[in-house]
Amino acid sequence: MEGWRSAVAINVAPRQLAEKQFPEMVAEVIEETGIDPDRIWLEITEGTLLRDPERTIRTLGCLRDQGLHFSIDDFGTGYSSLSYLKQLPVECLKIDRAFVDGLDRSSESLAIVKAVIALADALGLACIAEGVETVSQLEALQGLGCHIAQGYLLGRPKAGADLGRYPVDDLSSWEAPVPVPADKRRPTGVSA
After folding, report:
1. Spatial CB neighbours of 11, under 8 Å, sequence gap ≥ 6
2. Phi, psi (5° rounding) for residue 133?
3. What predicted TM-score, i.e. pTM, was given to this entire model?
4. Which pLDDT value is given to residue 141?
5. Closest CA to 134 of 149, 113, 114
6. What whole-number distance in Å separates Cα of residue 41 and Cα of residue 61?
7. Do 132 and 113 meet the contact criterion of CB atoms below 8 Å apart?
8. What does DSSP say about strands 126-129 and 40-45: parallel, antiparallel, or unpaired?
């Protein structure tokens, strides 16, 4: 999973994916910016698959031919058929934050997280846990075999212009911050 360090994840809205010219628009942006398409991961929700599954499969195929990658965002919260996983050029499942949040309080959340990790592993897909906010969540996920995470524990979202010391055009030097134990973290909204 070394390639994840330098990847850029972009959420794609259902209406964007439904546009006939979407693959061409993406190709133009790649051409204009010079970004390596192998570093781009487009995140689609399960709900997007339901709108027009056949068109979605064709569109994702065109985008995959350009070298882009895909993950299913908020996996487990929609109503899509698992049969689509075989047809889509998806390489990653993302565990929804609602399940991560309940890891230490709900046996159902724990069971769902285990199942998604096992499903991803069985299908040869990567698995990312969303919404990781505590060290205990991170440790539980690591213990379950999920080795990629995102959430406030690891870093807050930022606009490209606000990345500071991180170069916008080369993300290969980025390092994940060392998790801060819960008793050492500042409450949300408190400035340094």
Report:
1. 43, 73
2. -120, -10
3. 0.63
4. 94
5. 149
6. 14
7. no
8. unpaired
CA distance 152 to 98: 14
Q: Retrieve residue 39's tokens.
A: 């570093």
Query: Between these two residues, 67 and 186, which has the higher pLDDT value?
Result: 67
**What pLDDT shows up at residue 174?**
44
Report the DSSP beta bridge partners of residue 73: 45
- What's the Rg (C-alpha) of the chain? 17
Angle at 73 between CA 98 and CA 62, to 5 degrees: 175
CATH of the structural domain 2-184, one choice from 3.30.470.20, 3.30.300.20, 3.20.20.450, 3.40.50.10490: 3.20.20.450
Burial of 85 (0-12, 13-18, 19+ CB in 10 A): middle
Domain parsing of the chain, residue ranges: 2-184
Verify whether residue 24 is a known catalytic residue: no
Alpha helical stretches, state H, 4-145: 14-18, 22-33, 46-51, 53-65, 84-87, 97-101, 107-123, 135-144
Catalytic member of 19, 91, 130, 139: 130
Region of residue 99 (phi > 0: left; psi between -120 and 50: alpha; otherwise: beta): alpha
CA distance 157 to 151: 9
Query: Considering all CA atoms of the chain, what is the largest pairwise distance in Å, rounded to the nearest integer?
Result: 50
Which of 10-19, 56-65, 157-166 has the least mean pLDDT? 157-166
